[in-house]
Structure formats: structure tokens, C-alpha cells
From TrEMBL:
InterPro entries per record: aa-tRNA-synth_II, aa-tRNA-synth_II/BPL/LPL
Protein's recorded name: Aminoacyl-transfer RNA synthetases class-II family profile domain-containing protein
The organism of origin for this protein: Streptacidiphilus alkalitolerans
Matches recorded under SUPFAM superfamilies: Class II aaRS and biotin synthetases
Aminoacyl-transfer RNA synthetases class-II family profile domain mapped to chain residues: 122-277
Amino acid sequence: MATLSLTLQNPGPGLVVLDPDRAALLHELDALFTGLATQLAAPAVVGPPLLPAEGLARLDYFRNFPHLGVAAARFPDQAVDALAAGKEVAEQPVSPTGYLLPSATCYGLLLSLAGQEVGPEFRLTAIGRCFRNEDHYDGLRRLWGFHMREVLYLGTADGARQHLLDSREFIEDLAGRLGVVLSYQPANDPFYDRTGSRAKLMALDPVKYEFVAEDGTAIASVNRHRNFFGERLGITSDGAVAHSSCTAFGVERWVHAMVLAHGTPERALHRVRDVRG
């Protein structure tokens, strides 16, 4: 592989440029993750780069995660004129657009299915660039923007549970072949109001479990939505409110876990390519 004569510097906190080895590792890993989609017959789609605030409000996004949202804004005419005249960017006002950058890949897919009948077993997969306004950033473990591969299921309650069982088996087998040691544990999602009803319900009946690397980094998750999205978005399966579940891979976090497990990006990349055959 060609090498770079320069060091790639991070543009800012929570922002990274992956060097050639880490970039290759990201793409090779995602190719392995799509094996789950192939196994479960989930066709690939491309999700939207922005999400309407109105749609997210229907999903209680702003009640649960207002602190994570990254809003899209535009410069009004007066700011455009000022910028063209050489004025400082930081001094210019911005206008809301009513859209946010995605914080998870599945939101755009679910919103695209609103009001539709999906049949008894419906799946999609997509990889998206996701964005989260975190309280701190930490290398590839916690980023402003990152890639998330998801495999989404909609159908029956039993089907949603089986999707997660199949996903867990796939992830644990893949991690073993890649030499990554993982633990499986209930998620501790960053609800804005930890005393709220949804946070309390999560504590009593966890609906999200994470696969956690040896240094505590959560690199994948399985998520049981019950019939929440089906009810909020009017999605049905065989005439009944659809249940849903999804499997998510944080791709940069897998890159981090592979380098942690194998010592260098080069050795990690060699291991991934061996597994891919």
C-alpha cells in the first residue's frame, strides 16, 4: 500500500482524518458487517443526509436526546453579503432550516416507511455518517461524526426478537474470528432526563444491549424497539402495528478495537483480510 509522506492532522476536536491503513480497515470491516445483512436478506439502501425536526419530534427525540442533536443552519442574506465582504464568520447570524444531522442511521429509514404496510418480515441495511453533540471527544472512541452500519427489521414481535438473537450470534462469532474480546451488557443510553419514564423503563426492562471492548468502548449494539416506531409512524405488518429492532455497528469504534487488540493498524488490517479470505 502507498504511504503518505505527511502526517494527517485532525481538523478539530472530535474530527479525524483516517490514514490509509485505518481507512482500509474501516472499509474492510464494513464489508464484514454487511455479511449480517446478506445472511438476513436485508437489501442495502442509502439513507438521507438530513432529518426533519418535525419527524424526529414524532419519535420523542427531543424529549430524550436534545443534548445530542446537531442542527443544520443556513446564512441569511445579510450574513451572505457580510461574508462576501470579508467579515468574520463567527460574527454572522444563522437561520434554522428545520433539519438536523442524523445521530443514528435508522431514523431516516424508519421515517421513510411512515404510513406503509411492510409485510411479515421486512429488513433494510444502510451505512450512514452520524453526528452527536457529545460533552467530550476521545480519539475514535467518541467523535462528532462517525459511520454507523445498521440492519433494521420490521414485522412481528417474535421476528424482532429473533433478529436480535441472530445478530448477537453473528457479532460474537465475528469478534472471535477477528480476535476482539467483547462483553455483552445492558446499555446506559445518555437520556437527557434520567428520571423520565423512558429512562426508568430502560432500567427495568433493557431494550438495548451493547458489545463492549476490553477498554470499555461500546462498538456495536442490538436494539429492541417494541412497537414504538410502528405506532408513532403508522407502520403496519400484516395489518397490525409493526414491531421493530435493529443492529448497529460503530465502524470507527471497531477500527479502534481492532488496533487495540492487535497493536498496530497494519496487523489489524492483516487480520481482517485473513477473515475475509
